[in-house]
Fold each of these.
Amino acid sequence: MQEIRINTEYIKLDAFLKWTGVASLGSEAKIYILEEMVKVNGEICTQRGKKLRSGDIVEFEGETYKIV
């Protein structure tokens, strides 16, 4: 599990995917989310604007990221 540090109260899911390098473009992140390829806290998430906060866990293609 990779720990990803954010310096704000929250980060939106699509921005998080770009921040971690999972997606190089916002449109790429949007596709991953809409095709139900991303899980947040163990559940598939289709909300691009989902606010992720410290302690949340994001899963994508076998990789796990914890927000700290």
Amino acid sequence: MSVRIVVADDQELVRGGFAMILDAQPDIDVVAEADDGVAAVAAVREHEPDVLLLDIRMPRMDGIEAARIVCAETGCRVLMLTTFDHDDYVYDALRAGASGFLLKDVRRDDLVNAVRVVAAGEALLAPTVTRRLISQFAAGPAARPRQTRAEALEVLTARERETLQLIARGLSNAEIAEAMVVSEHTVKTHVSNLLAKLGLRDRVQAVIAAYEAGLAVPGA
């Protein structure tokens, strides 16, 4: 089954270029394009895509607000695109519920892979979005006291905690399986269970939770 995607960018050439690259893939179907945030939200509501490829800076409604609405109202996953590599945009995108964050100078193959990764339920951040940014986000003024956050992890089994810690280190399911000496299917089960128990949307939120609880430490 093809991944259904809406491409939203206010620059026609950029939007058309991304749409052409993605629509050329045998497993990706671009079902609509949008030139601003309002149109992007409307397109998602109408076409019910799997992924919304969404620029951050757009007229009428910016990408952050559009992502917030889409993530709150639908099951569509949001992959953010921007020409800027500023911490604030990363934070806002994560707060809005985005599952991926890429810069617009992303290579063709990396763009296609990002869409597939996000559609499969994984989370993806650009290489420039480091653990330092995630840890700073987690330590922001809106963060809860660390003791409270750590207590929230008590619902997890030892294996689920270990899985969460490895997710926070940036490991894929295959790499986690190798590290824990279990099957990849078992890892997927652990990931699904810990997300459900902690009420998290995806791996991005899981990474934030791990840092908030002190389970992961920058540079460790």
Amino acid sequence: MLLQPLPEPAAERAGVQLLLLRDDLTHPELPGNKWRKLKYNLQEARRLGHYTLLTFGGAFSNHLAAVAAAGRLTGLRTVGVVRGEELAQRPLNPTLARAAADGMELRFLDRTTYRRKQEPEVLAELLQQTGPAYVVPEGGSNALALPGCAELATELRALTAFDALCVACGTGGTLAGLVTGLQGAEQVLGFAALKGADFLQTNIDQLTQAATGRTYRNWALHTAYHGGGYAKLTPELRAFITQFQARHGVLLDPIYTGKMLVGVLDLLARGHFRRGSTVVAVHTGGLQAWAGFGGAPTPPGLG
């Protein structure tokens, strides 16, 4: 686990030590929070005798790519249910093409049916088509995802004391897991990558309740840094990511971590964090998403 100092002017003015946790470097093919969320789900699938993983995601889902890679690495069959009509997804974008290359069988659901994917009759019909499978929810966020994410807080604490952890949020599973791994006055700040993500407040409480039997209050959710919504890459966000890489030699992903760092630096400029505190931003990976945006930007002087 690598901790990288981020000597940002906003942090220096605020008197805050800002660090970047490079969880994107933890595994060559399954970096970041996706592997942590799958870890105990894979163990449970094997315990129950399943040889197929069935899961859900949008066309640019890092989760689908991660499950496909996990299936290839562990010898499990994988089925990915994709939101949207099949004709609209052909030819496959780079994320789905990578998943297919890793052996994932792709199935497509119209958006109306996809919204009902958790209803028993919809799920039963899918399983009738695919055969018995261990079902992993969209984004990988369930009670078994939390202990893998909680381990990140434990590993980090072995390296440094910290006051706040900052992480991007899609379905809320990573934040929920981190919350359960905190101690004392440590807090987690989540930065929603989706527009209209107020529902995450309820999701996170439900996840922690299911995993530990309790809810927590040592966290906060920020919903103003979505940059237009999921899978939206504005010129301003692309420029920020390019400039960040030029300053620190670190490429951020365009869907999650880039937006989170925009939010962290804005909160620093607003004096949100206590002077003298240590704030750790988590790079959760997801760099494969750049293929769907025409490739990652190259900062001046690095081309």
